[in-house]
Structure formats: structure tokens, C-alpha cells
Amino acid sequence: MIRGTWAEGRPFEVRAAAVVTAALAAFVMSGLYYSPLVLGHAWRALDPATAAMSPPPWMMLAEVARTLVVALVIARLLAQLRVGGWRAALRLAIWLWLGFSAMMWVGAIMWQHTPWQLAAIHAGDWLLKLLLIAGILGSWRRRLP
Predict the structure, then answer these.
(1) Nearest-angstrom CA–CA distance, 101 and 43
(2) pLDDT digits over 63-89, tens only?
(3) DSSP string covering 111-132, please?
(4) In the chain, N or C terminus with fewer CB closer than 10 Å?
């Protein structure tokens, strides 16, 4: 259990097991998403240099850490906003994706000339990642006191 106090003095609790579970599930889902089973072939065709790269172990650990940070931030937002249940958590995830991830990829298309197909693949990964994390955390919050 991670406990703390918000700036206004109200306490919060975040269940560490829920955050770790959500982050690991999102990491595995993302790996499957970029595999040949789902969109790996399309991704490799659009970005062959990155797709051909074999990431070193430290990079995989850094990706797990990044996903843990995202899960922790979403858990704190759910607690701060007093979001209860998985449906409300999924709605928050959609808004977070639309306001941040989707807009970042639109910017990449506009300003860096990222192919829209590649941006759509990456944005889809982030949508699924946020939905999975929020769904797990929202379900966990509802089940536990």
C-alpha cells in the first residue's frame, strides 16, 4: 500500500499490487500488439529501422519502469478524482488518451511528418495500454475497501 497526503491535506491510498499488476499487464499487451500476431507486420513495414532493432535488456527494464510510472499516475488520478469502478476508470482513460497521446501523435504527423499509419499504430497501443491500466485499477478499487 502506498499512502500519502494530497496538497490540501486529504489522505490517499494506492494499492501497490494493483499498480504493478496493471503495469505488467500493459507491458505484455504492448509486446503482443507489436508482435506479428497483431500489428507487427504493418509496424515493421512502416518503420523498418526501429522494428529491426533488438532492444538490450536495460531498455526493456526502462520500458517496464515507464509503464509503472503511467500506472501510478493513473492510480493517483483515480484516487484524487474519487473514481470508483472500471467503467468510470475507462472513461477517464479515454479522455487522457484523447487529450495527451492522440494529440501528441497528431502533432508528430503535422510537424515531424510522421506517417499517419505509423502514428495510428502507436496511438492505438497507447489507447489499449491506458484502457487496460485504468480497467485493472478501476476494478481493483471497486473490489477493495
Answers:
(1) 18
(2) 999 999 999 999 989 988 888 889 999
(3) HS---HHHHHHHHHHHHHHHHH
(4) C
Q: Which of 137, 143, 123, 127 is nearest to 22 (CA)?
A: 137
In whole angstroms, how large is the CA radius of gyration of the chain? 17
Residue with cell 526493456: 60
C-alpha to C-alpha distance for 2 and 132, rounded to whole angstroms: 21
Helix (H, G, I), strand (E, B) or coil at 35: coil
Please state whether beta strands 2-5 and 11-14 pair in parallel, antiparallel, or not at all (unpaired).
antiparallel
> 84-125 pLDDT, tens per residue?
889 999 999 999 999 999 999 999 999 999 999 999 999 999
Distance from C-alpha of 138 to C-alpha of 85, rounded to nearest angstrom = 5
| Cα 57 from chain centre | 20
Which amino acid makes up residue 35? S
- Phi, psi (degrees; rounded to nearest 5) at 53: -70, 135
Burial class (CB in 10 A: 0-12, 13-18, 19+), 7: exposed
Are 26 and 71 in contact by the 8 Å Cβ rule? The answer is yes
Helix ranges restricted to H, 6-47: 16-33, 40-46
Instruction: Kindly report the pTM of this predicted structure.
Output: 0.89
